[in-house]
Amino acid sequence: MIDVYRPVTYNPDMAEIPSAEKVKHSAWFECVRGCGGKYSLKEIMYTCPNCGSLLQVAHDMDSLRSKTPDEWKQLFEERKHSNHWPYGSGVWGKRELVCPVVDDENVVSMYEGESNLFWADRLAKKVGLRDLWIKLCGNSHTGSFKDLGMTVLVSVVKQMISEGAQIKAVACASTGDTSAALASYCAAGDIPSIVFLPKGKVSMEQLIQPIANGALVISLNTDFDGCMNIVKEITKDKEIYLANSMNSLRIEGQKTVAIEMVQQFDWDVPDVVIIPGGNLGNVSALGRGFMMMEDLGLITKRPRIVVAQAESANPLYLAYKTGFKEFHSVTARKTLASAIQIGNPVSVWKAIDILNQFDGVVEQASEQELVDACALADNTGMYTCPHTGVAFAALLKLMKKGVIEKDHKTVVISTAHGLKFSGFKLQYHMNKLKGIESHYANTPVEIDANIDSVKKIIDGHIGGL
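Predicted structure:
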């Protein structure tokens, strides 16, 4: 019987399938503020023991530069969609640049990544852009980009357990997508998972995912920031491992979004990349991916990074308006973009550092703007999550301001699949969203089952197109 998570090697020409590098590359944790310490990726720690700052994963770049840019490109192309475990994964196909410390048998992967870079030509023409692309990260195992980081984190945990670490469970606070990814990957890796969710603040589709995958689901009467405070306390016990993005192993998997899109563009770099921002780990991941490619000679320029926030949860936007001279957390208000309803983002200073290096911009979107942007995009063939709607709304606003010009090659990062959020879409088209005008509503027509009545409706519809 073939294990569907471990495709067998198939090579009719008996040629060698690209696999692990003969040179053993190394990576480690270090303080983002440069305190000087180096710590094993298999050590249970999330902040610098000297100053308390977040950690980041550092790689032996001299070792990685032993391969030429063309050699890296060739290797990545050969591995793409490979049936040789685990290189068909968009993450593990870049394992030397991501996480070289996990043995093949401990990799927990559902062949995440390699998601479609969608040419949004029709939407581009509607909004006045010449070259618009959508990186569909929601086309993944659990329906969001969180899979990219979770495969790395859970694989490292499995490696640690195989080496004797006494880890009994992995835990996270979540607004929905992180909990889904953690529960799924832990279930596949036979590791117990615990998720803390803010009661009543995630969609039904997101809630059922960790329940179905067997996680211990704890619903707290608080918001995400409250859940995050709880999980930080719980994971002081080293037998419960922290899976939120303050654990920089997650960032390493998520940075493959940048590498993947450039590879899909034949190693050309877009002018602008727009990404929704909540806890802001994805922002630093995106920037680190581009910087690593630049360091290895795979690219020679950087894009401008735009972070899009919901107006109801906009601490980074408010800091941007001060030139990042100061940052204050906010109490996040209810927003349809629930996954980014975060008022005190853990990775804010990492994100600000990246924005300062990438000529960064932060824009916000109101509830009206994000739902209309979703509907506009959906009308051209997409099915957008509300967070992608925030990014689309930011795109439209920045075009009006002249920040994004019509000739800019622009990529919007779609962070989750719209099927996770179908409820708000139905309410929009039925004109039932409180305080929202459904400018692009497409309400179902209800009539008797009479052929003449049906023909009349069809004729009227076609004639109005």
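Summary: The first strand starts at residue 27 and ends at 31.
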